[in-house]
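Re: beginner question about structure tokens

> Can someone show what the tokenized structure looks like for a real chain? I only ever see the sequence side.

Sure, here's an example I had lying around. Input first:
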Amino acid sequence: MKPPIMIEPGRVVYSKAGRDAGRAMIVLRLDGEEHALVADGRLRTVEKPKRKKFKHLAAKPVCISSIQEKLANNRVILNAEVRAALEDAGHETTECTDQGGVTLGKE
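And the corresponding structure tokens:
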């Protein structure tokens, strides 16, 4: 059995629950013992990240080193950097649709 993947800043995660379920995101910061602040650069921006419980996140074995380094040094991260990092890692943000079939998260 594999050990669980640790949720840490810079880690790629997928949302397992909520209206953003299935979306790839990057952990920006840990918030307490049970929560993380995550952003995807589109629907959830760096300026207004989503606070999610660890149990609602599926951690991937990919950690974005450039973003991790910026977070460790308290440097500014742009939404375009988050989007590009997710795409480069092969975890493009998926489009979500609401109950009426309207596409959300498009620019």
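Each token stands for a local structural state, so reading them left to right follows the chain. The chain has a mean pLDDT of 84.
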